[in-house]
Every structure is written in structure tokens, then in C-alpha cells.
Specification:
Strand content: 25-35%
Distance between the termini: 46 Å
Helix content: 10-25%
Radius of gyration: 19 Å
Strand order of the largest sheet: 3-4-5-6-11-10-9-8
């Protein structure tokens, strides 16, 4: 009986070690209160419909060539804030903060103690583009060519047409489409709507 108990404890211990923090960090509550359910969405994505990426950080990298800024929403929050510089305006809501930048980028992040983590980045300008080259003004055809068919397209409560991509490692990319079938703005966020 004692040998069985010892084997069980060793198995549990190895499982705990194997499940330490890794690239799936954002699949769980990460201390800032950000979880899988944070991204708003009208779709209920089945587990088998979640996307995978060859490189998670690259998949959610945003670039502004004019200002020579590039970062991933999976990067350390303090590093991203340093890269973006002083915001044009800032809103605080407890541990959550939203910085608006003059280059039409908007970053929401959370802080807990010494930890700063990105929650969401929104772009309202063609100065910003995704790692696959999609930006404000890109067409639906360009989105589909870059990202493939989406398991989730819907109309928001505000009547906006949204194409979203949800990934198994805990992040989502949303493209809001205008009446000309072009991207009006895009956002990348931690969580699976």
C-alpha cells in the first residue's frame, strides 16, 4: 500500500513540474485576472476549431515601420510600454490601464505588483500592421489570404462586421470591417472570446 501511495505522489509531483509556466501561460489566469474568457466574442468556438501557430509570439506581433516599433502582445508588458513611449492619454481602471497613442494605437495592460502584462492592442491606423501584413484598409480577401477561413464571423451589437481568429494558446485576433469591406480597425487580445 505504501509503495502505491509513493508512486502516486511521484506521479503527481512530476505532473506539476511538467505543467509549469510555458508558452501556454495565457491559457490560465495569469495573476492579472486575464483569462481565456477576456476577449469579447459572439462565437462559441469548439476546441477542435482553435487555430495553432508555428510561432505564437510572431502570430500576434504588431509593427509600425514609420516609428520603427515592433512588439508581440505576448512580450513583457514593461518592455512594450518602453517601446511605445509616452501615451497621448491614459485611463486607469483598478489594475487595468489603457494608453492611447498619437499614432492611433491603443494598448490595454494590467499590473499586479511588479508584473505588467499586455491584455489587448487595437490599431485604428494603417501605420500599424500585423505580422502577416494586414492593416487598416486591407480587404476581406487579403485577410482570408493571410489568415485563412475564420471559424467565427459575426455582427457586433453595434452592427459592426467582425472576422476573428482564435488560437489554442490563449489569444485572439479581430478584424472589424467597414461598409467598403475593408479593415476599419484590428485588435489582438489575450483570451479566447
Amino acid at each position: 500500500m505504501n509503495k502505491k501511495f509513493l508512486v502516486l505522489l511521484m506521479t503527481i509531483g512530476l505532473s506539476i513540474v511538467a505543467c509549469g509556466k510555458n508558452d501556454d501561460f495565457y491559457n490560465e489566469d495569469n495573476g492579472c485576472g486575464v483569462s481565456l474568457e477576456e476577449c469579447p466574442s459572439e462565437c462559441d468556438i469548439a476546441e477542435e476549431s482553435l487555430l495553432t501557430a508555428e510561432d505564437d509570439k510572431l502570430e500576434v506581433t504588431i509593427e509600425n515601420e514609420k516609428e520603427n516599433i515592433s512588439f508581440s502582445i505576448l512580450d513583457d508588458g514593461k518592455t512594450v510600454l518602453d517601446k511605445l513611449g509616452e501615451p497621448a492619454s491614459k485611463t486607469d481602471d483598478g489594475d487595468y490601464h489603457t494608453n492611447k497613442y498619437s499614432n492611433s494605437g491603443e494598448l490595454t495592460y494590467c499590473t499586479e505588483g511588479d508584473t505588467t502584462e499586455i491584455v489587448e492592442f487595437k490599431s485604428f491606423s494603417n501605420d500599424w500592421k500585423t505580422s502577416k501584413g494586414i492593416t487598416v484598409g486591407s480587404t476581406i480577401d487579403e485577410i482570408l489570404k493571410a489568415y485563412g477561413e475564420s471559424a467565427c464571423e459575426y455582427e457586433s451589437e453595434d452592427g459592426e462586421h467582425i472576422i476573428s481568429y482564435t488560437y489554442e494558446n490563449g489569444y485572439s485576433i479581430y478584424f472589424t470591417i467597414n461598409d467598403n469591406n475593408e479593415v476599419a480597425f484590428f485588435q489582438m487580445c489575450i483570451g479566447r472570446g
